[in-house]
C-alpha cells in the first residue's frame, strides 16, 4: 500500500476548519430563513392568488425542485454577468440556495396550511375565540406541530448543501478543506475530518431541533432515525 | 441577447448534441445504478435493522452507524473522500466507477431509511397475526408487510430518485463526464455560460420532471385508494 | 391432567405490570370465559398464550409439557396447537378473504392446497361469507371481518381456540349462529378461552367464568354463581354494572 494515514499535521488545522463550519452554519441559517420568507410568500400566493399567479408559483417550484442546485448557482454565477449582474461567490451561493430553498419550503408550508382542520376552527369559533385567539391557540400550534419535523429535516439537508459553496471559492468548511488539501496533500485525512465535522454539526442541530420541537411545539423528532 | 442568438447554431452542432446526449446518459446511468443498488442493499439493511436476534446486534449497530454517517456528510465531501481513498488503494482510477460507488453507498443509506419507515408504518396487528400463525420474520415480510408497505415506500422513493439525479451533478467535481461537467467544458470552449448551463438545466429538467410527475401521481392515487 | 396449566404468571409491557400472578387450569374440551373491565388484561392473557407477550416469571404447561418461551421450537409448538381470534381481528389487509384463511395452512403448515381450499370454503360457508371470498378486509364490516378471523383460526385445525371479544362486533342474529358453532366445536372436543361480556352467551356456553381486574384473577366461578352470587365484592360491582347497562 505504501500509504499511512497521518492525522497530526491535519489536526493543526482543526480550529481553522471549525471556523469554516461557522460560515457553513451562517450560510445555512441565512438561506433557510430567506427561503422560509420567500417560500411563505409563494405559499400565500398559491393559496389566495389567481390562476396566473398560481401557475407561476407552480412552475417556479417545479423548475427549482427538478434541476440541480449546483447548476442553478453556476448559472447565477456565470450567466448573470452577461446581463451585467456580477455576484460575489458568497452572494451567488446564498442567493442560489435561498431560491432553491424557497421552492421546497413553499411546498412544506403549504402542506402545513392545508392540514388545518376546519372542525378545529369551527370548535374555536363556537367557543367565541377572536381571530387573534384562533390564530394563537388553534392555528399556530397546529401548524407548528405539523411543520416542524419536515422543516427541521430540510434544514439538515441545507446544511449539507452548503458544501457546494466550496466549488465557487467560498471558504466555508468544505472550502477550507480544499485549501488545506492543496497545501498538505493529506487528502484522505482532511476529507475524513471534514466529514466528521459535518456529522457533529448536523447531530448538534438535530439534537437542538428535537428539543425545541418537543418543548415548544409538541412535535416529535427522532435524533437517531 | 443578439450574441446569444448568433451563437445558437454554432452551439447545437451535431458534435455538441451527441456530446450532451452522452453526458445525459452518464447522469442517467449514475442515478439508475445508484437507485437500483440503493433499493436492493437498502432493502436488506432495513430488513436486518428490524431483526430481534441478539446475534445480529452487531450488524444492527453497524447499519445504524452506516445510515447516520452517510446521511450526515455532504455528497461532495463523501465523493472527494472516496476519490482520494481510491487513489491510495489503487484498485481503479475509473472516475465513473468511483462516482457510481459513492452514489450507491449514499443511495443505500437514504433508501434504506425510506424502506425501514415503510416497514414501520404497517400496523402491529399484522405482525401479531402472522407471528401467532407461526410465520417467520422473513415470511411475514414477504407475504404481509412488503405487499402493504410498498405504497408507503414508493412516493418518497421517487423524491429521492430526483435528489440523486441532481446530486450526480457534483460528480463533475472529480471529472466524471456527466451533464454538469459537459457544460463546464462547453463553457470553457467559449460558448456562453447562459447557453451551456441553461441547456443542461433543461436537460436535467427533462430527466427529472417525468419522475416527479409520476411520483406525485402515484402518491395521490395511493392516498385515495387507502381511504 | 389439564390441557393448559398457567402457574403464577407475571408479564409486563415495559414497566406496566399487566398480568399479576395468574393461576388457571383449563381441561380438554372445556370452555372458559374471561370477563372484566377494559384494560384488565384479558387480551394480554390470550396474547401470552400464543407467545406474543413473553411472561417474566411463572410457568405454563401445555398437555403436561412446560413451555419455554425463549425457545423458538416451543413457541412454534404452542402456536401449532393454539389459534387466536384477535379483538381487532388482525386480518391481513393485502389479502382477500379466501387468501386470509388459506395462507397459513398452505404456506406454513404445508398442507395440500386443494384440501385447504375445500376446508376454507366449508368454513366460510358456515360463517355465512361464501359470497365474500374475493373481498378485502377493508370492504367488510366489523362483524364480517370477525367471522373471517374465526374461519381463519379454525382452518388451522387447532386443539385450543382463543376468542377475544367474540360477540361485541356481531349482529344480534349472528350471535346465535356463532354460539351454535361454538357449542358444536366444544362437543367435538375443542378447548376454548373466550373473552365476552354477552352474559347470556357466557352463561350458556362456558363451564367456568374467570373475572379479571387490574391484571389479576379475582374470582373463578361457575357461570350461574358468578352472575348471581359472586364471592368477591369487585366481581359483584362489575357484574351489576354490566347488568345495568343492558
Ligand atoms: N402493546 C401494548 N403495549 C403497552 N401497553 C399495552 C399494550 N397492549 C395493552 N396494553 C395495556 O395493558 C393493559 C391491559 O390491556 P388489555 O390486555 O388489552 O386489556 P383488556 O383486553 O382486558 O381490555 C391496558 O392498560 C393496556 O393499555
Ligand atoms: Mg381486550
Could you characterize what this model shows?
The complex is a heterotrimer of chains A (225), B (227) and C (246). Chain A has helices at 8-11, 14-48, 51-65, 69-79, 89-114, 118-126, 131-161, 173-184, 187-217. Chain A has 225 residues and is an all-alpha fold. In chain A, helix 2 (14-48) runs antiparallel to helix 3, helix 2 crosses helix 5 (89-114) and helix 3 (51-65) packs across helix 5. Chain A is flat and about 75 Å long. By secondary structure, chain B is mostly helical. Chain B has helices at residues 2-11, 14-49, 57-70, 75-89, 95-120, 124-132, 137-167, 179-188, 193-226. With 246 residues, chain C is an alpha/beta fold. Chain C has 9 helices and 10 strands. In chain C, helix 3 (97-108) packs antiparallel against helix 4. The site of adenosine-5'-diphosphate has 11 residues of chain C, from strand 2 and helix 1. Adenosine-5'-diphosphate (ADP) binds next to strand 2 and helix 1 of chain C.
Lay out the secondary structure.
The complex is a heterotrimer of chains A (about 220), B (about 230) and C (about 250).
Chain A: H1 8-11, H2 14-48, H3 51-65, H4 69-79, H5 89-114, H6 118-126, H7 131-161, H8 173-184, H9 187-217
Chain B: H1 2-11, H2 14-49, H3 57-70, H4 75-89, H5 95-120, H6 124-132, H7 137-167, H8 179-188, H9 193-226
Helix pairs in contact in B: 2-3, 2-5, 2-7, 2-8, 3-5, 4-5, 5-7, 6-7, 7-9, 8-9
Chain C: E1 4-13, E2 16-26, E3 31-35, H1 42-49, E4 57-62, E5 65-66, H2 72-81, E6 82-85, H3 97-108, H4 113-126, H5 142-154, E7 160-163, H6 172-187, E8 191-195, H7 199-205, E9 208-213, E10 216-221, H8 223-228, H9 233-245
Parallel strand pairs in C: 3-8, 3-9, 6-7, 7-8
Antiparallel strand pairs in C: 1-2, 1-4, 4-5, 9-10
Helix pairs in contact in C: 3-4, 3-5
